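retry 2 of 3: previous attempt timed out while embedding fe (iii) ion. Reduced batch size to 1 and resubmitted. Inputs unchanged:
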Amino acid sequence: MPVLKNISTLYTCIDDGGQAEIHPIKNGVIVWIGETIEWVGRESELPEKYQSEKSFDAGGKMVIPGLVDCHTHLCFGGWRADEFEMRIQGRSYLDIAKAGGGILSTVKATREASEDELYEKAAGLLKEIQKQGVTAIECKSGYGLSLEDELKQLRVYKRLSEETVVHMVSTFLGAHTIPPEFKENRKGYIDLVINKMIPAVAQENLAEFCDIFVEESAFTIDEARTIFEAGKKHGLTPKLHADQLSSGGGAELAAEVGAASADHLEQISDEGIKQMAEKHVVGVTLPLASLYTQQPYLNCRNLVDSGVEVAVATDFNPGSAPTFDLPLAMMLTCNHGRLTPAEVLKGATIYASKAINRGEQFGSIETGKSADFLVIDADNVNEWMYHYKGSRMEFGFLKGKQIN
Ligand code: NIG
Ligand code: FE
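retry 2 succeeded.
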């Protein structure tokens, strides 16, 4: 029964008290058994029975829950550095997509790659992601856009989840965009998603969520509604890429279909905010996509003040967010999303796990949760975000085992 002691401040981030309440404990202690947290509290109140247990020393540093990246596109073929240059030279993300680049260029590269090649690449990336203290990750398909290629991506995630200690959650994103062979036949592609892909994904138990890119350039509200219904029949919970480039009623649809989260939201309407708050849909901000596509940042302050819980994620993908630096996304959410460091910490821990329906399992430091926590070399949460230099993780624990 290991014990972590000598913690300056333990930010437990339990799901209570709103976005800003991270429940700090001065001179905290964590006791765990195997993979699970057994006791959390002040060092002065540590029960006698735990006192002689093997202890780890946090060196007087702060401790936070393991970070949760609740929105990534981890598995893909190729990269798109050429588009990065084009955007800097003035071409827009949408413009590049319309000319056959963007998502479709990654679809081509992903189709050309074998499952093993994709696996090796994703596994390498995941190792690097872990080093920052990310202990849970959500991963989407959406670069296959054919039955076999979507399954190929999702099988990569299944294999990874069997090999890695990181908590993994998979999402089917067959409705990411219309593939070239269905350019003149949208309905044909949507039928394929509904009648072939969703049943096959469910049959192989390859995903838990069904995500859709709801956008003028991708799928309409009505198309999305139909796909979500089919997904729900097969046990897939809705999630959305919504209101990213235009305000198209995506947030309202998220509330209507009972989505776990609506992500992006830069162009969300006031009505959308109201409905998400009422239906407890988590809003996921993805500031790295704004950074890389020169688009406005989501004003998260507005959402939080209206009662929406906001999570922060990377959106890691080869186009709009080619970095997996979650702490950077957090810092940008402070500066551009107008959330305090404490609010952002809650957004990258317990609220991020709620966005992937894992709030009961991890994302906070409390009895019964997975023993996932990080020792951070910073004085307090404000100083941590202010003097940005990555996660500043000294070491941590994931499912009770030491990492780094
Ligand atoms: O979340 N918005 C749609 N999908 C991704 C972008 C994917 C890509 O550019 O390859 C996103 O930003
Ligand atoms: Fe995304």
